[in-house]
Design a protein that fits this description.
Blueprint lengths: L17 H10 L13 E3 H10 L8 H10 L1 H4 L3 E3 H9 L1 H7 L27 E3 L3 E5 L14 H4 L10 H17 L10 E5 L8 H13 L4 E6 L1 H4 L6 H13 L4 E6 L28 H11 L4 E9 L7 H13 L3 E7 L13 H12 L9 E6 L2 E10 L9 H9 E9 L9 E5 L14 E4 L5 H20 L1
Parallel strand pairs: 4-5, 5-6, 6-7, 7-8, 8-9, 9-10
Antiparallel strand pairs: 1-2, 3-4, 10-11, 11-12, 12-13, 13-14
Helix pairs in contact: 5-6, 8-9, 9-11, 13-14
Bound molecules: iron/sulfur cluster.
């Protein structure tokens, strides 16, 4: 459905469909218990001042707070964090940089209001449907907010994206899948998988979370992903009541797999960090883990229907170090978490304060792969409108080849970067390449658009080869003369 014909609905006004909710409530909700957590969430600067006055972890000086207020940084994204995470920020420079707002964020607000044109793929409010996987926006907050947040447009409500009604989504999935089965829909596969996103689904109550899980399982899905950074922000959330709800879900839907798409950005978020910022090692020289994170991971891993996958962007002054990334991949795998993706920082508004150039981030990631086991490795990709676009490699240029002349000479002199369409909604583009002349300053695929020689996104043979042929022809005809 084109964007301009989407159903108009004011954010937060979705229908409640109470009778259907009550039916679940009567049958199942009675078995689900809630815990009253005290995350001690500090939202915005005024609340932080109060927390400081109460003796909380000092992350900002008074001068910094005044500079933040003067810059209007809260208009972009208010600073928000749990007391737990601020306490960690005091011991870790990387965590501090991840969570601490800076006036410089306001220096350049260029970027996309709706990164990767997500609304184009939203057939009903709260749902993105691009692959055989659908994404649901289930809650408009996280217990802390990363300054580089790639969903900040949703958290702040700037693009009008709404949260998903599980009843509407379940109806959409069953209707879509019935049409695929009957042959009425042929351009998209059966929906097998859903990602609960937001915000962070783990800030929902157990009953709300169950509602989404149960509704999606009833709609016939095989895999449900939960995208969460709560293991870093507030690991105590993974408590007895949560696991009782998860086990109830598994009892009802034993064939449905749950994948926790966790988001650790730096090892300090899951290793034991002393007051002076150092790790503590056991007798075998292995770093000890944060006991709260360890317990949450162990309890999740103890369930055969659960997997844990980490994905995170590479962020300036947070994790832009191959040794940090290597340690992270090793230690996550030892904790039972698979290393799924490292991402390029998305082209959100204000991304220039956090993003490294694509080729710099690729190099850091490539170096981090050295000395890793095959089962510890990961991919580095851009989440573009065309799909997950992996950066496969960068070829150094050779200046003497500029003598070939024209675009070909420039490309070979400056070097090439090669992307691969690792995951794309279009079947015949799967695995195809994009080859572009290097741009050491590019922060996103848009920085390469006028340098692309071969473009696998274009599908048709003559189109994807078009630029390369135009580049080669003058050289070939010169050679033939
Ligand atoms: S956890 Fe994800 S959605 Fe939440 S603030 Fe961080 S990047 Fe944004």
């Amino acid at each position: 459905m084109p964007l301009d014909s989407q159903p108009v609905r004011i954010a937060g006004s979705r229908p409640k469909q109470k009778s259907r909710s009550r039916r679940h409530k009567d049958n199942l909700y009675g078995q689900i218990q809630e815990t009253k957590f005290n995350r001690y969430v500090l939202h915005d600067i005024a609340r932080y001042r109060q927390y400081l006055a109460e003796g909380g972890a000092s992350v900002y000086s008074e001068a910094e707070l005044k500079a933040l207020e003067a810059s209007g940084v809260s208009n972009r994204l208010p600073p928000r964090a749990t007391g737990y995470y601020l306490d960690l920020a005091k011991r870790s420079e990387a965590v501090n940089n991840l969570i601490k707002a800076r006036p410089e964020e306001m220096d350049d607000l260029s970027g996309e209001a709706d990164p990767s044109n997500q609304l184009k793929y939203s057939p009903i409010p709260g749902l993105l449907h691009k692959y055989e996987l659908v994404l649901l926006y289930v809650v408009r907050t996280c217990s802390s907010w990363c300054r580089y947040c790639y969903r900040s447009d949703f958290l702040t409500g700037k693009t009008g994206k709404d949260t998903a009604s599980i009843h509407e989504i379940a109806d959409y999935i069953t209707t879509h899948n019935a049409k695929v089965a009957s042959g009425e829909i042929t351009d998209k596969p059966r929906i097998r998988e859903a990602l609960l996103s937001g915000g962070d689904p783990m800030v929902l109550s157990n009953r709300n979370l169950f509602d989404y899980l149960h509704g999606l399982a009833e709609a016939g899905l095989d895999i449900i992903r939960i995208g969460t950074k709560e293991m870093a922000f507030y690991p105590e959330r993974f408590d007895d009541n949560f696991f009782a709800m998860l086990d109830l879900f598994h009892e009802l839907h034993p064939d449905v797999m749950i994948a926790f798409m966790v988001h650790f950005t730096h090892p300090d978020e899951f290793l034991h960090v002393e007051a002076d910022g150092r790790y503590v090692y056991n007798q075998h020289g292995r770093p000890k883990r944060n006991p709260l994170v360890q317990e949450a991971a162990s309890r999740l891993r103890a369930r055969s229907f659960v997997t844990l996958e980490n994905q995170t962007p590479i962020i300036d002054s947070v994790n832009d170090d191959p040794n940090v990334l290597r340690l992270m991949q090793r230690e996550l795998k030892r904790m039972g978490v698979n290393n799924h993706y490292f991402f390029q920082c998305r082209e959100i508004e204000g991304h220039k304060a956090f993003a490294l150039p694509v080729e710099t981030a690729w190099k850091i990631h490539a170096q981090s792969q050295h000395n890793l086991s095959g089962i510890e490795r990961s991919r580095f990709a851009l989440s573009t409108e065309a799909g997950k676009t992996e950066v496969v490699g960068v070829i150094e240029g050779r200046e003497e080849l500029r003598a070939l002349g024209g675009e070909l000479g420039d490309a070979l002199a400056e070097g090439l970067v090669i992307f691969r369409l690792h995951r794309t909604p279009v079947e015949n583009l799967q695995g195809d390449l994009i080859i572009a002349r290097r741009n050491k300053n590019a922060l996103w695929i848009t920085g390469y658009e006028d340098r692309i020689l071969y473009d696998g996104r274009k599908g048709a043979n003559e189109k994807k080869w078009g630029q390369l042929m135009a580049t080669l022809l003058p050289v070939l005809s010169q050679a033939a003369e």
